[in-house]
Design brief:
The complex is a heterodimer of chains A (about 60) and B (about 600).
Chain A (H helix, E strand, L loop, with lengths): L22 E5 L2 E5 L2 H15 L13
Chain B lengths: L15 H25 L3 H4 L4 E7 L4 E4 L4 H18 L9 E4 L11 E10 L2 E11 L17 H4 L6 E5 L2 E2 L1 H8 L5 H29 L1 H24 L4 E9 L10 E10 L2 E5 L15 H16 L6 H4 L2 E4 L15 H23 L12 E8 L4 E7 L29 H7 L2 E8 L18 E7 L3 E7 L20 E5 L9 H5 L6 E8 L3 E5 L14 H9 L5 H8 L12 H7 L4
Helix pairs in contact in B: 1-6, 1-7, 3-8, 6-7, 8-10
Classes of the chains: A alpha+beta (about 60), B alpha+beta (about 600).
Chain lengths: ~60, ~600
């Protein structure tokens, strides 16, 4: 089924659009989509410790 | 498909001499693709401007070769190809298929940048993907040649998610029909697309030759080794930087929608061992105009800056592995649908490069001032009275680069994310109803480069006269109000100027003054008439270091070239030049500089 980009999640670590093969991870009560195993590491090692969740953006503070 | 988890300890298994031969074969294949596109395309932006990039990916979907093309495209194509393969699925690809996509939100550059991708099969297995991105001049939308003050993606033009434009070596006619019926210059669009696709077939032949010569196992191993070697070199370069966090920011002036507002690009470069994170958190929200960057554009600008740190190493997927990028969605550096972004790739990304370099200057101990950072983009369109055919053209030119820690900024360069060429006067006048009235270095005081121990380079100044009864003009420029920053005591660079003059009049006016537009640098679909003129003058870069430390002989050279006056030499650089014979007065210079 075709999806428009507005229906696709963003990576919770790097912010890239994830058109396919999204990886869902759970951190505490939060479920996130990440684009790769590398970004899962990036989230755990940098993003979450610094921001307490996905990097804050003005329109989307959490993905998915 | 690799998850991109680095394996820095991997051993190189291919004989190093054979590896270099195979790597060179792949790089040469990319160059040959480019030559084929240059010689067979229809549009000057292809065959003169070279606004395209050709690459080869291996069967795992990672880039193994690129050539000296456009960094903005090459950085993004890493992700465009990766996600196109994932979205379409290799299992849905067949020999002879070609996939097209120009969706900027799918990690691409901007809407005019069309990407074509061809899987290469050997014995039923995908062993490589050949791909290129090229700038299609007209893509429909409200502005001929796309650039202006668009507010959303629908105004920019036609957008394709990944679709097959060839199936089993045959054109998918429906796709071509949709394209050529939605652009102003269908012949050009068709010809340019065929040039792009033709280069894929050429590359496929070269890759099959390589596989047949060395065998599939050796080829596959070589692809892994090529990437690993580059990864080691990239990591070694990063490891030479001191660990730490380095911040910098820069501004993009108005977006053509809100007058006077500025948009901040902010980065924190986190250097940790042999890896680096470029964190753009804190950048401004996405704007209402078209200056926004996609994630792919922000990534490619980051890569372009980092490659300055790497130096001369083979560029391929291995170079990207040590770099992580964080660009929060909905910001100026990661636009969300349906935000406009056609200008971000071309005219915001140079500032992003300079912001990253600004942050890394402290780490590297080798600084640079800001480049002029606007290409002076003009989109023109109409009907040529000579041929009665519609035309559309994207005009851009070179600005001055910033002074650096060891030399002056280059004159008349495109951005560090570009690498394109201008359109020669002869071609411009032959192909379009324009006359180039004036072309030279921009010596206007408004656009002069910043002074410094190493001054900025000069931009260009050009005047174009309209030779048709009517012509549509749009503009997307920056640095009209925000100047390129200096560094280490160097002065700010110059401003861009876009001015218009009606036929027979003497006074140059801004688009606000003449036409009541919102912005002096970003506007759409102004109608010019025969004899009207456009002045586009691009800024010089910022200066680096205290101007009073500039080598007096270099100051004298600048005076001899009439870049600066004798008075400026004394006032700005503290260098005494004899106005009679323009000789250097060393004693007076020493006195001006307070030295014995």
């Amino acid at each position: 089924m075709f999806r428009e980009v507005s229906e696709m999640p963003r990576c919770g670590a790097c912010g890239i659009l994830v058109p396919a093969q999204e990886r869902r991870i759970e951190r505490g009560e939060r479920e996130l989509v990440v684009c790769s195993a590398r970004c899962e590491v990036l989230y755990d090692d940098y993003v979450e410790p610094r921001y307490g969740g996905p990097a804050p953006g003005p329109l989307t503070s959490e993905n998915d | 498909m690799s998850d991109g988890v680095p394996t820095p300890g991997a051993q190189i298994e291919t004989d190093p001499f054979q590896l270099e031969i195979m790597r060179s074969h792949l790089v040469t294949t990319c160059r040959e693709m480019g030559i084929a596109m240059m010689r067979t395309s229809y549009s000057p932006i292809f065959n003169e401007g070279l606004d395209f990039s050709c690459v080869v990916f291996d069967g795992s979907g990672e880039m193994v070769a690129q050539a000296d093309f456009c960094p903005a495209m090459i950085g993004a194509i890493v992700h465009v190809v990766e996600w196109t393969i994932k979205e379409v699925g290799p299992e849905n690809m067949e020999p002879g298929d070609v996939i097209l996509h120009n969706d900027p939100y799918r990690n691409g550059c901007h809407l005019p940048e069309f990407m074509v991708l061809k899987p290469c099969f050997v014995d039923g297995e995908i062993v490589a993907y050949t791909a290129n991105i090229a700038h299609m001049v007209d893509i429909g939308g409200m502005v001929p040649a796309a650039f202006g003050d668009t507010r959303n993606i629908f105004q920019e033009g036609i957008r394709f998610p990944p679709v097959k434009i060839y199936r089993q070596d045959r054109e998918v006619e429906d796709i071509f029909k949709v394209i050529i019926s939605n652009v102003r210059t269908p012949d050009y669009a068709y010809g340019d697309l065929k040039a792009m696709i033709g280069s894929l077939y050429l590359a496929e032949r070269r890759i099959v030759e390589l596989v047949e010569r060395y065998g599939l196992p050796a080829y596959t191993q070589a692809c892994e080794d090529i990437k690993d070697v580059s990864e080691r070199l990239a990591r070694a370069a990063i490891a030479r930087l001191p660990d730490g966090e380095y911040e910098f920011s820069g501004a993009i002036e108005d977006d053509g929608v809100v007058a006077g507002e500025e948009w901040e690009i902010k980065v924190r470069m986190v250097v940790d061992g042999d890896e680096v994170i470029a964190d753009y958190t804190g950048s401004s929200p996405q704007s209402g105009g078209s200056a926004n960057q996609t994630w792919g554009v922000t990534a490619s600008a980051t890569y372009a800056a980092m490659f300055n740190i790497y130096g001369a190493i083979p560029f391929n997927h291995g170079c990207y592995r040590p770099i992580s990028i964080i660009a929060p969605p909905g910001t100026f550096v990661n636009v969300e649908y349906p935000g406009s972004c056609v200008g971000g790739n071309s005219d915001s990304s140079p500032t992003t490069v300079d912001v990253v370099l600004g942050a890394l200057s402290a780490a590297a101990g080798k600084g640079t001032a800001s480049d002029g950072d606007t290409h002076g983009i003009l989109s023109i369109g109409g009907t040529d009275p000579r041929s009665r055919q519609p035309y559309a053209h994207l005009y851009f030119d070179g600005f001055g680069w910033g002074g650096r820690f060891d030399h002056d900024g280059n004159d008349v360069q495109v951005g560090k994310t570009s690498n394109c060429a201008n359109t020669p006067i002869e071609v411009l006048e032959t192909r379009y109803p324009l006359e180039c009235v004036e072309y030279g270095l921009n010596l206007d005081p408004v656009g002069m480069p910043g002074a410094g121990k190493f001054r900025g380079g000069f931009g260009t100044r050009r005047v174009l006269r309209v030779l048709a009864p009517e012509m549509t003009l749009s503009a997307h420029t920056n640095r009209n109000t925000v100047r390129p920053w200096g560094a280490e005591g160097g002065a700010e660079g110059g401003n861009c100027q876009v001015r218009l003059r009606r036929a027979g009049e003497e006074k140059w006016q801004t688009a606000i003054e003449l036409l009541g537009m919102t912005s002096i640098g970003k506007f759409s679909n102004v109608t010019l008439y025969e004899g009207d003129e456009v002045l586009i003058a691009l800024p010089g870069g910022g200066g680096y270091g205290d101007p009073r430390e500039r080598d007096p002989e270099l100051v004298r050279d600048d005076v001899l070239h009439r870049y600066f006056s004798v008075e400026q030499a004394a006032e700005v650089f503290a260098v005494a030049i004899d106005p009679a014979d323009l000789s250097l007065d060393r004693a007076a210079t020493a006195a001006l500089r307070g030295r014995p």
